[in-house]
């Protein structure tokens, strides 16, 4: 008999997907609810689950062990509500249940990261199937582990190529559930009790890394590394990989190379490290060395399951990275070949097609490039939407409009209206663009739609009251910026935002500036520059210089970057590279 054991809280968006993936291979479903206020429990009962209630006490192990105590099966399948068992894995589970010699099986967990499933993922091995023994219990208040107790009691453990897909690290879910703050709070308490615990230091470092605090993350990783130097752990190579990434982000390239070389010698079959070394070479413009590293990655293939972390480094990601190097050296034929190989290995990753389209437009005339791009898609409204977006990003606005209109023949949603509105805006058809933006009632594009709507209305002298009310309700920082901007246009006066931290407001101002420059509405752009007087951020000239450079206004870029250094002593690595590149550039779009 096989029991499924899970702990859940407010998982109505995930639980049905999970239970559908496993209900026909388990004999019993044990759900421990730790305080749901949505339809989670109803969904669980729909699948015949036995539901128990547990008062949450900030201890994941305690809750998980409570679920194990309720299981009647002789084997237990361990899942989270935001997991889904791979269809092929189901066929293997019955075979595993027949082998009484193995106490626990490790499955590969593919954790989707970023905005949507399939675009990027990380890999880990996790204990998923265990014998139901009282001595096999989780330890640790967070990032709880059961493998240690199984090994300490002499249990036999085996790896199997069964995949579990994990959706809990997608950006939207992390934000909605406030996972970072929750995890950080528990980890800080654990570290107070045991400050030299390498696993806790590793995990809190991972949280800081996810928040973009690479300095603090690296310091925790370094402590974890030295605390566990003589201890065999299952996460050592993942720790090293994260340390290399942090060093790169902190511009400590020499240290990153040193750690790469040292680690490649110690872990010669961990493809991830060779991949990161290639990325470092690309960063410092050592193009042939980078290509050699990525070719080596392809020869190595994916690392063994126990070491696997960055998915695709032995295949599609190596080809993709190599293609980007070839693009930099303007070897477009090889770039195209690399992107095609990458797409063949991972056809679900549409982002590769965006890279491929850039290569096609660089290599071929416009007609040929368009034909080649379209040839990679099936005939469907979803395909037309992606094609339209690709053409838009390559500045082919008339082609973009043609394909989004084809999509809208049968697919009318927030995304298609947004793409059409944005395209019309860049074609200076502002009145028609407004009509599209006003069809959008939610989703990830809503803020950008409101901003575009207001800009279009200002350009044709139309009232901005309705989109401003929406901004005030949902995006107060953007509302404050446009409120001041409207005053500026009407009265030619600029008032400061206030005493708050103005970083967020500055971001909104630069979104507006970027759009106005892109659509070449220079008169309104010049007036918009006065909004920078509303904020007190010392890097505004640096950011303005970068904006000018992106749009080919090289003389203005040089002026603003130079002013940033002279007035505020502010410059970064990217700014220095731009100034270096500007030495031979004289072209300018506006003066």
UniProtKB/TrEMBL annotation:
Domain Glycosyltransferase 2-like: 3-108
Keywords associated with the record: TPR repeat, Transferase
Residue ranges the record marks as coiled coil: none
Cross-referenced InterPro entries: Glyco_trans_2-like, Nucleotide-diphossugar_trans, TPR-like_helical_dom_sf, TPR_rpt
Record flagged with keyword Oxidoreductase: no
PROSITE patterns hit by this protein: TPR
GO molecular function, one term: transferase activity
TPR repeats: 271-304, 316-349
Pfam families recorded: Glycos_transf_2 (PF00535), TPR_8 (PF13181)
Protein name: Glycosyl transferase family 2
Biological source species: Thermoanaerobacterium xylanolyticum (strain ATCC 49914 / DSM 7097 / LX-11)
Organism ancestry: Bacteria, Bacillati, Bacillota, Clostridia, Thermoanaerobacterales
């Amino acid at each position: 008999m096989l029991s499924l054991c899970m702990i859940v809280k407010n998982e109505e968006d995930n639980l049905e997907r999970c239970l559908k993936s496993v209900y026909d291979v388990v004999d019993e479903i044990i759900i421990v609810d730790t305080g749901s206020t949505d339809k989670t429990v109803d969904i669980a009962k729909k699948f015949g689950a036995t539901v128990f209630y547990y008062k949450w006490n900030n201890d994941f192990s305690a809750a998980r062990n409570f679920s194990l105590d309720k299981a009647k099966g002789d084997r237990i399948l361990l899942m989270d509500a935001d997991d889904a068992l791979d269809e092929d894995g189901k066929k293997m589970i019955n075979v595993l249940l027949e082998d009484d010699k193995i106490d626990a099986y490790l499955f590969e967990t593919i954790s989707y990261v970023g905005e949507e499933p399939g675009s990027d993922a990380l890999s880990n091995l996790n204990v998923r199937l265990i014998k139901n023994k009282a001595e096999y219990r989780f330890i640790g208040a967070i990032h709880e582990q059961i493998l240690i107790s199984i090994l300490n009691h002499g249990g036999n453990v085996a790896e199997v190529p069964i995949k579990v897909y994990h959706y809990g690290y997608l950006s939207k879910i992390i934000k909605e559930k406030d996972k970072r703050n929750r995890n950080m709070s528990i980890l800080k308490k654990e570290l107070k009790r045991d400050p030299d615990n390498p696993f806790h230091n590793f995990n809190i470092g991972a949280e800081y890394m996810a928040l973009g605090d690479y300095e603090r993350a690296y310091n925790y990783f370094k402590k974890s590394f030295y605390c566990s130097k003589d201890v065999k752990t299952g996460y050592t190579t993942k720790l090293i990989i994260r340390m290399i990434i942090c060093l790169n982000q902190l511009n400590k390239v020499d240290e990153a190379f040193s750690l790469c070389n040292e680690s490649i010698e110690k872990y010669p079959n961990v493809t991830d490290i060779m991949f990161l070394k290639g990325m470092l070479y690309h960063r410092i413009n050592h193009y042939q060395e980078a290509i050699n590293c990525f070719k080596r990655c392809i020869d190595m293939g994916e690392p063994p399951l126990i070491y696997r972390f960055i998915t695709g480094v032995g295949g599609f990601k190596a080809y993709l990275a190599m293609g980007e190097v070839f693009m930099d050296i303007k070897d477009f034929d090889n770039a195209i070949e690399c992107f095609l190989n990458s797409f063949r290995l991972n056809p679900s990753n549409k982002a590769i097609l965006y890279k491929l389209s850039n290569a096609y437009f660089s290599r071929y005339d416009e007609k040929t490039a368009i034909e080649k791009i379209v040839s990679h898609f099936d005939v469907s409204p979803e395909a037309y939407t992606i094609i339209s977006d690709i053409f838009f990003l390559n500045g082919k606005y008339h082609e973009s409009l043609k394909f989004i209109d084809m999509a809208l023949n049968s697919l009318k949603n927030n995304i298609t209206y947004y793409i059409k509105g944005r395209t019309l805006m860049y074609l200076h058809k502002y009145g028609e663009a407004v009509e599209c933006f006003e069809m959008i009632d939610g989703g990830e594009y809503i803020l950008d739609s409101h901003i575009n709507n207001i800009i279009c209305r200002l350009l044709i002298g139309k009232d901005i009251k309705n989109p401003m009310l929406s901004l005030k309700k949902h995006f107060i920082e953007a509302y404050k910026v446009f409120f001041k901007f409207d005053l500026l246009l009407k009265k030619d006066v600029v008032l400061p935002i206030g005493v708050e931290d103005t970083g967020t407001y500055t971001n909104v101002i630069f979104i507006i500036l970027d759009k106005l420059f892109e659509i070449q509405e220079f008169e309104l752009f010049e007036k918009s520059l006065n909004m920078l007087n509303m904020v007190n951020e010392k890097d505004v000239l640096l950011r303005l210089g970068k904006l000018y450079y992106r749009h080919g206004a090289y003389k203005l870029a040089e002026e603003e970057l130079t002013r940033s250094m002279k007035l505020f002593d502010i410059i970064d690595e990217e700014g220095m590279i731009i100034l270096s590149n500007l030495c031979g550039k004289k072209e300018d779009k506006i003066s």
